[in-house]
Amino acid sequence: MKNRLKVLRAEQSWNQSDLAEKLSVSRQTINAIETERYDPSLPLAFAIAKLFGLPIEQIFLGDAGDPPG
Amino acid sequence: MPAPAQKRMPPLGIAVLAVALAAISATGRPGPESLAMMSSLGLPDWAGTLAVHAIPVVLAVVLLVVGRMATRGMGHGLKWGIYGLLGMVVGMVTAWHLELFAGVPAIIEAANGPLVEAETTEILLWGLGSICMMMAVMVGAVALFGSNAAKAMQVEEVDPELLDVRRAERGLYAYSAFGMATVAIACMALAIARQSLPDMRIGPLLIAGVAALASIAANWILWRHCDELQRRTVINGYAVSAVAATLGAFGWAMASAAGYVGQIDAAAAFVALTIIQLIATASTTASMMGKTFSTTRAA
């Protein structure tokens, strides 16, 4: 699933390790989500949304790359 | 759009591989047929012996370079499958030329009495144990030395983030190395028990049992510390291996009923299941975590 995690992380000047620590997951998980090899669970997606203060649909864009209408 | 030029191979990784293989090769005793073959090529004894020891090292490095060129732009599953086959070729050529760890049987016999000749199942147990021990050493090196060890053992360009091993993560690598080492010890102790005289089997069987329990404990601790991606990877690996093992067992049962193959005992079944699990887990881990620069850029 396409997502804006890498952009959002860069805006905060966090590396993957920083973000992984804030979300209590491994760096490999952050890397896999950013490179679209892994879709996070719903609890993790909510945790990411809460951390960035954005709705989930503004972070995870679906396979087409557009936010769901 | 044409695939971009591939990055050059990490020279340190190749050098480390060559040194490690040379160290393993040095433990071996050349077979008489191999030495005779070298003599027939006109080499003096010392040069023939050196050549037999060098063959596995040179072959591994050459096949690695050729394999990398041949798998350029391929998906990681196929790529690592081909690397696995090339590794098998190196292993078979090595086994044909050298009796590796030639001094070990004498040490075991001194401690536990005479050993009978290893048959297919025992050879597979020794092989599986050696692979697990090698993996334990590699993962253990990452646990001890962190990113430096991870980079030194890399023969493919990968995302640098994947090689960045933080101090807090080393504990998991240590548990993983411990788990692999205990599987290796269990396999080797079981092989020793099967090769020992009947009244000398209790010692190695006790060691095998304790090692197996320690392996279960290490895996349980690892599972408790895994996050959702790591657990998904483990589950995917076991799901693939369960399907493969079930189909394989059914195929073997049919072939056995038709009289093409014999029956297998529990030790052979254990070896087959463990090898399937290793391959399936490595494949799913590579597909979920190990995307290389070359496949990322070529996509």
Draw up the topology in text.
The complex is a heterodimer of chains A (69) and B (299).
Chain A: E1 2-3, H1 5-11, H2 16-23, H3 27-34, H4 42-52, E2 60-62
Antiparallel strand pairs in A: 1-2
Chain B: H1 11-26, E1 29-30, H2 32-40, H3 45-70, H4 76-97, E2 98-99, H5 104-112, H6 120-145, H7 147-152, H8 160-163, H9 170-195, H10 202-225, H11 228-257, H12 266-289, H13 293-298
Antiparallel strand pairs in B: 1-2
Q: What is the total number of structural domains of chain A?
A: 1
Instruction: Give the total of beta strands of chain A.
Output: 2
Strand content of chain A: 5-15%
CATH topology of chain A: 434 Repressor (Amino-terminal Domain)
Helices and strands of chain B, in N-to-C order?
Answer: HEHHHEHHHHHHHHH
Strands across the major sheet of chain A, in which order? 1-2
Low-pLDDT residue spans of chain B: 1-6, 292-299
Radius of gyration of chain A: 11 Å
Secondary structure tally, helices of chain B: 13
CATH superfamily of chain A: lambda repressor-like DNA-binding domains
Reported for the largest beta sheet of chain B, the result is: 2 strands, antiparallel
Structural class determined from secondary elements of chain A:
mainly alpha
Q: Give the structural class of chain B.
A: mainly alpha
Strand order of the largest sheet of chain B: 1-2
Biggest interface, residues from each chain: A-B, 17 and 16 residues
Helix percent band of chain B: over 70%
Q: For the residues shown, what is the average pLDDT of chain A? A: 88
Query: Unreliable stretches of chain A, pLDDT < 50, 5 or more residues?
Result: none
Question: Could you explain the architecture of this structure?
Answer:
The complex is a heterodimer of chains A (69) and B (299). Chain A is built from four helices and two strands. Chain A has a single domain (2-53), classed as lambda repressor-like DNA-binding domains (434 Repressor (Amino-terminal Domain)). In chain A, helix 2 (16-23) crosses helix 3 (27-34). By secondary structure, chain A is mainly alpha-helical. Chain A has a two-stranded antiparallel ribbon with strand order 1-2. Chain B has a domain at 1-102. Chain B has helices at 11-26, 32-40, 45-70, 76-97, 104-112, 120-145, 147-152, 160-163, 170-195, 202-225, 228-257, 266-289, 293-298, and strands at 29-30, 98-99. In chain B, helix 2 crosses helix 3 (45-70), helix 3 packs antiparallel against helix 4 (76-97) and helix 4 (76-97) crosses helix 12. Chain B is globular. Classes of the chains: A mainly alpha (69), B mainly alpha (299). Chains A and B meet through helix 3 of A and helix 11 and helix 12 of B.
